[in-house]
Specification:
Largest sheet: 2 strands, antiparallel
Helix content: 55-70%
Structural class: mainly alpha
Number of helices: 17
Number of strands: 2
Radius of gyration: 27 Å
Strand content: under 5%
Shape: elongated
Strand order of the largest sheet: 1-2
Order of helices and strands: EEHHHHHHHHHHHHHHHHH
């Protein structure tokens, strides 16, 4: 094929096909794996036994398996048979081309597993799954359970091969365990969360796996959104557990996102469990609504004090403030008299003030930090540092965490 006058385009090689396959993976829909498979098939039709530049490599199979994992995540179906077929094809090429590297290792097995690398800030996903607590669409929950079981079976198979054939290069690692944890935590069931905890415990007991705080985030988020009283206890347990473990492994230090889940757990318990008593309101239920709102408020106050003291690397969004406001709003509906109503409203306004203070604190800190960095970059001959100005738009463009809080503000104040 010629381009322009006498310029001859090079013939495609394996890298060309790999690049096209990866480009398809950037498309977020369920047809990705089908299209990747079609590109793979085209490579097979054009390959020749004596041309090393035009035949599938280990990287080609890795991309194909990753597209399979992406499709599984989108469709909610993990087809073990299809995943195994890809490995069968890979073993076929390993026999045909023994000089090529087609070793099946942990990385290849993991490539077939759906996995979220950064799953700390995932409350929105779990809010939808646990919208009605452990109730809800049982058909969806059944599908999610099947999906999680198939992923768990895949990992069990991986572990069996590793032990029986003595392949240490095929031992499940952190990503393997996190994939199973994430799958079970998203089933919307208590059994699923307990299975996720089981796999988290397995990871903790493995000396060769360096667990991280993100490993436990799905479990904490699921319990927080469950709306169960037990959820409050389990969220507290995992925050305390990771906090204790962080003394030996700093990567396990829970941050603001994880600690915020305790406030959310109280509010969700009020919203899901206590609200089921609406048909027969009683003084005990009314008192419990107020009690839960106080718990949200106290934990938010403690969280903000810890952030202020810089005890740990804190990341906060508007969710703990929203949860506290929602809890007080539910308590307001159960208020006995005007005096109690005024008390509750005063607490709501104080939560708003706390949110204001957080935004202002972030602005001041980032303004000073940005100004200092810009001053350092000014030409040494320019002595007019004191008059150097930074506008708000510049700050928001440079610091996404301030922009996040800034954008949260309108939705927050509508509460």
């Amino acid at each position: 094929v010629k381009l322009f006058d006498n310029y001859q385009l090079p013939s495609p090689n394996t890298d060309t096909f790999n690049i096209v396959m990866r480009r398809w993976m950037s498309v977020p829909n369920e047809i990705v794996h089908r299209n990747v498979s079609q590109v793979f098939s085209k490579l097979e039709t054009q390959m020749s036994s004596d041309d090393k530049e035009l035949r599938p490599t280990k990287e080609t199979f890795k991309v194909a398996l990753q597209s399979f994992a992406q499709n599984s995540k989108e469709s909610g179906i993990f087809d073990q048979v299809e995943a195994s077929n890809w490995f069968d094809r890979m073993e076929k090429y390993a026999l045909l081309y023994p000089d090529d590297n087609f070793d099946i290792d942990t990385e290849m097995f993991n490539s077939a597993l759906p996995w979220d690398e950064d799953n700390i800030s995932i409350s929105n996903d779990y809010a939808k799954i646990y919208q009605n607590g452990f109730d809800g669409d049982q058909r969806e929950k059944k599908m999610a359970m099947t999906y999680a079981r198939n992923i768990e079976d895949w990992v069990h198979n991986m572990n069996t091969i590793s032990k029986e054939e003595g392949k240490t290069s095929l031992a499940p690692d952190l990503r393997t365990h996190e994939s199973v944890i994430q799958a079970w935590a998203k089933t919307g069931t208590e059994y699923g969360i307990l299975r996720a905890e089981y796999w988290a415990d397995l990871a903790l007991k493995r000396y060769d796996i360096n667990v991280r705080v993100e490993t436990f985030a799905p479990i904490i988020a699921a319990w927080a959104q469950s709306g169960e009283e037990k959820g409050i206890e389990r969220v507290q347990f995992w925050i305390d557990n990771t906090d204790n473990l962080s003394k030996l492994n700093p990567d396990l230090q829970p941050d603001g996102y994880m600690r915020s889940n305790l406030i959310l757990a109280y509010q969700r318990y009020q919203s899901v469990s206590l609200s089921s008593h609406r048909a027969r309101p009683s003084d005990n239920i009314k008192d419990e609504h107020v009690s839960v709102a106080k718990e949200c408020y106290d934990h938010l106050t403690l969280l903000l004090e810890t952030v202020k003291d810089g005890e740990y690397e804190a990341q906060l969004d508007s969710s703990p403030f929203n949860a506290s406001i929602d809890a007080w709003n539910s308590a307001l509906k159960s208020a006995r008299d005007e005096e109690e109503m005024q008390y509750i409203v005063s607490k709501m306004l104080h939560v708003v003030k706390c949110f204001d203070d957080l935004i202002i604190s972030n602005y001041k800190h980032k303004f000073n930090e940005t100004k200092q960095n810009m001053i350092e970059n000014i030409d040494d001959n320019n002595d007019d540092h004191e008059n150097y100005e930074i506008d708000t738009n510049t700050l928001l463009r440079i610091h996404p965490e301030v922009l996040r809080l800034h954008n949260d503000s309108p939705a927050f104040y509508t509460k």
